[in-house]
Amino acid sequence: MKQQNPRKKPPQKTPRAPHRPWLAPLLIFLIAFAFRLDTVFTGPSSHTRVLRNHEPQSVAESLVRTGQFANPFHTPTGPTAHLAPFQPVLLASLIAAFPGDANYETAKQILSSAAASLQYALLPLVATALGLSRTTGIAAAALAIATFAFLPKKVQPIETQGTWEAAYAALALVLLTMAFKKARPAIFGLASGLTILVIPSAALLAAAYLAIRKQKLPVLVALLTLVPWTARNMLVMGSPIWGRDNLGLELDVANNDCAASKFVINRHSGCFVSRHPNTNPAEAAAVIKEGEVAYNSRKLHDAVTWMSQNPARFATLTAERIQLFWFPEIGSSLLGIITILGFAGAFVLYKQNRSAFWTLAIPLLVYPPVYYLTQNFPRYRYPVLWISFILSGYALTELFERLGKRNRSMQRN
Length: 413
Fold this sequence. Notes:
Layout: H1 23-42, H2 55-66, H3 86-97, H4 101-121, H5 123-129, H6 134-150, H7 157-160, H8 166-182, H9 185-198, H10 203-213, H11 216-236, H12 247-254, H13 263-269, H14 271-275, H15 281-290, H16 292-309, H17 311-326, H18 332-352, H19 354-366, H20 369-372, H21 382-412
Helix pairs in contact: 1-4, 1-6, 2-3, 3-4, 4-8, 5-6, 5-8, 6-21, 8-9, 8-21, 9-10, 9-11, 10-19, 12-16, 15-16, 18-19, 18-21
């Protein structure tokens, strides 16, 4: 009688490492936040001195003192739609929550730093939402952190200073892109409307994404999100302004006989000072006399007239501003490399993933043009800079993957 063999035990499986999708974003956030806190507390901008006479700060102080969304300029001019509501309301909330200039300014800069860091922490999730690898998103975040770390200290406050909405605008566009790809219709519509209230120059982008989704509910929710601000402006300003009303002023300041392509030159030459109501009491008096909406309408007419009568100079200014938008002089070598690498990544992505390509290309096509027509500030590029990091990360991961395949093929042969 044969002895029966005991049953063989099945080979034990090697336990898989637990999946932690939150780990990479968390590490990215902590590293990015640490760099930004270093800028807040050791950089050239004071974290205790409030930068007054900047329009968002002026409106925020008006909200705290009087409860009115008003007086964006050094000379009080009354109720305003010169700015979108998000940034002044945020600053007013911080003033109320953190009394005292030092407490307020420190909290403001830390919060802006956190928003900038969260933007980069979300890049791996953006990449997967686009159908790209998490590695692409991690590479993009690493490029962003490295670029920020090596930029001159005087440039870094674009993210950390917090008076303007740059960090929050970039975060809003990141969240809008994720909502466009993955969110339910109502959430996508809400993200579209809120993005416009943060940065109205992204309205064309939101409209393009809404059109691509071809759903009625997101459009309805986006419009409803804009109703309170639009209704307020209809009642207070006499015009249904859904974003902000300063386009005419900005075009006039940037397109005239004394204008240069950069704000810093216009400021030093006196061109900006002579034409802007925040620096020229006569212009502020004109705002009061005509009313803000009518004043901006007149400025728009003046700017368009100048453009049509000076086509060569207007073309030169526009060309210079396009160059400065994509290849800024501040930190030019680093940001220039990121821009070129991003264009290379876009070329490869177009051939391999058309859906992801157009999701990232549309913002780069419809967001910048208004800034080609107005004087250049380095912060204008920032809300879409993360797209260049994503495309650069994609270019690098594709390059390394192809080099790896080539090496493995050579080893087999």
